[in-house]
Amino acid sequence: MTAIDPSTLAADVPVHRTKRPDWLGVALALALGVVVVIPLLVVAIWAFAEVWRYPSLLPQEFGFRFWEATLARPDVWNAMSLSLRLSVTVTLLSALICLPAAYAFARLDFPGRNVLFLSFLTSHAFPKFGLLVAIAGIFLNLGLISTFWGVVLIQLVGTLMMMIWIPVAAFQNVDRAMEEAARDAGAGPIRVFWSVSLPQAAPTIFAAVLLSFVGTFYETEGAWLIGAPEIRTMPVLMITYINNQIVVQYGAVLSVLLWVPSFIALMFTRRLVGSGSFAKGFGV
Amino acid sequence: MAQLTLKNLGKSFDDTDVIRDLSLDVADGELVCLLGPSGSGKSTVLRMVGGFETPNRGAILIDGEDHTRVPPEKRPTGMVFQSHALWSHMSVAGNVAFGLKLRGLPKAQIRQKVQEALALVGLKGYGERRVWQLSGGQQQRVAIARALVLEPKILLLDEPFASLDQHLRERLREELRDIQRRLGITTLFVTHGQDEALALADRIVVLRGGEIEQVASPDRMYRGPQTRFVAGFIGSMNFLPCDMRGGVSDHPLFAVRAAVPDGPVELAIRPEALTLCPARGTGMRVHLVTDYGTHLLVDVDLPDGGRLKAMCPPSARYETGQEVAPEASHVALFRGDAKLAEVTLERRVAVHV
Ligand SMILES: Nc1ncnc2c1ncn2[C@@H]1O[C@H](COP(=O)(O)OP(=O)(O)O)[C@@H](O)[C@H]1O
Ligand SMILES: [Mg+2]
To answer: How far is the CA of B176 from the centre of ligand 1 (A)?
Structure first.
């Protein structure tokens, strides 16, 4: 090769994103933080308050009395473990069914594609409770009422939209040329899905999985209607608690316990993908 | 090594013919450029060879074997995409190694081949980088390495340098030419830039509306365009409409003798085939002089409202508004799209004063 032209070298350097604080972004983050964090903080303080009377900004007495009372109850532990098992099962099943389906919607052109896609969305366009009652009627005949798998099924329906719609968008955003390049290198269609499409769409799909997991954990209508009386999840238990006694602290303790899956999910996601690409999944 | 034959290829999208009836032979080790305006079907041809589109008619043969319906993963072709299409979730080495891993090669051999391929494109030691840490030119080099490491029989490139700036494009073009020669790999290169085609190709195929307009070496394509379209598409060309009467053109400037039936024609003259002499009373005035360093490009206004471009030596001096007289050394005659004749003219020594 001939002498190197410095101007070419200058032009052909990697682009580094400049990092300047974006003040509007900082302000927005702060505002959001206030709206989200303050109510959570109040609940958290309540959970550890033994005496908290009106004009005081902080409780007069802190303590673990209500925690001990709550954690001593076996039904709380049962509900927690049941809720976690339910959410994990539903999310895994949902991913297993929805991700290949989402890929098919995004990439394949088959007859009835649009009708099928719309049908997923319309299940969410109607008042959910009526639909649930109708399904409950069917489940009653099938003997699924008040069983683990009955609740799994009903909650699975609830995750469909999230686990189809978001991943479809994610797969559609994957550069087709990347998939073609993988075919070119010798990968069959399934290998392309595993090695290119899925990893490329991963940050967004993690976001969808996380939202489904948390959404399933907190789902009450289906869990209550199909699960009662045998299957009692955490949120269902909390509603019973709140209905039976008006001691704020019991509700607060259960609320804080309910955050557990959110934290687990967040930690899990942060470890799987860098926080940067995780934010990208949400379109940030 | 490998020979590529396209036989009567036809392809339609939604009932519109994109490729009509295209036949082409690419010899072993030859670099053929598919050149044409955007939408002329270049990518479609390339993608059919790569297996990403299935032709509606015709056949694709590689070394005489029919590959028309073989899926891309089973074809002995390697493709380089315009968007580089590197997998951003893998390292540079991961990208190059992907195809080798699929073939189940032993790890040590993969590592060695990846290193060789990266060295070939001048990226020795870049294996552990992330794709997005590289510049545009480096990314395209990785894409070339990724295609070459699998030792394809046919290398396919779809406007690989189109998104790079001029300097870099020329440098990568030269490097690619070097590599292609050294490996002797049969190559099909798509571009819409005539300079790129002229610089790279052993042969150029000009496509227009899904049909081959002309196939020729860069030299023949430039100096002997067979159609009006090619004459206008490759390089710059002055077209002067006039009539032929009794074997002579009736253009006031260029009375060209040619054995051509009477009727309307266009005289086609390259800027470098024109000489401008200072003159008086010709009514032709210099409109603009552009200095390119290596030459001057002079725009001349004609009395009939037309304009000529002439290429002049950098030592010449022309003023805007100065009267000149152009002389042509080589003229081609077109009627409609077809070439009727080519005429080399005697230089008149006399200078109009
Ligand atoms: N997948 C496709 N579906 C429909 N039309 C297409 C498709 N691919 C290409 N075309 C059409 O075929 C024509 C040729 O396209 P292409 O081969 O990409 O041209 P070029 O690469 O020369 O710019 C264009 O008119 C384009 O709109
Ligand atoms: Mg193209």
So the answer is: 26
Domain assignment of residue B316, given as a range: 236-344
In a domain, A3, yes or no: no
Confirm or reject: Cβ of B38 under 6 Å from ligand 1: yes
Under a CB-based contact definition with an 8 Å cutoff, are residues B186 and B1 in contact? yes
CATH of the domain at B195: 3.40.50.300
CB < 8 Å to A12, chain B:
135-138, 164, 168
The verdict on B260 and B140 lying in the same domain is no
Give start and end residues of each alpha helix (H) in chain A. 6-11, 23-47, 65-71, 74-107, 113-122, 128-142, 148-172, 176-184, 189-192, 198-218, 221-227, 234-244, 248-272, 275-281
Residue B352: inside a domain, yes or no? no
Distance between CA atoms of residues A213 and B6, nearest Å: 54
Cβ–Cβ of A184/B87 closer than 8 Å?
A: no
* Strand A61-62, strand A49-51: pairing: antiparallel
In this structure, are B99 and B13 located in the same domain? yes
Q: Residue A14 and residue B167: Cβ atoms within 8 Å?
A: no
A8 — pLDDT class (breaks 50, 70, 90): very low
Interface of A with B in 133-152 (CB under 8 A): none
- β-bridge pairing B203-208 and B186-191: unpaired
What's the B18 CA to ligand 1 centre distance in angstroms?
7
**Dihedral of the CA atoms B5, B7, B12, B15 (nearest 10)?**
180
Atom of ligand 1 nearest to the CA of B158: 21
pLDDT tier for residue A52 given thresholds of 50, 70 and 90: confident
Q: What is the number of structural domains in chain B?
A: 2
Residue-level pLDDT at B303: 87
Q: Domain boundary at B186, B206, B228, which? A: B228
Report in angstroms the alpha-carbon separations of A31 from A20, A26, A163, B165: 20, 9, 29, 44
Quick one: B346 exposed, middle or buried, by C-beta within 10 A (0-12, 13-18, 19+)? exposed
Q: From the CB of B54, is ligand 1 less than 6 Å away? A: no
Q: Which two tokens stand for residue B168?
A: 């870099």
Q: From B196, B228, B260, give the residue that closes a domain.
A: B228
A96-108 pLDDT tens trace: 999 998 998 888 8
Say yes or no: B54 and B202 in one domain: yes
CA separation (Å) from B350 to B10, B279, B329?
56, 11, 14
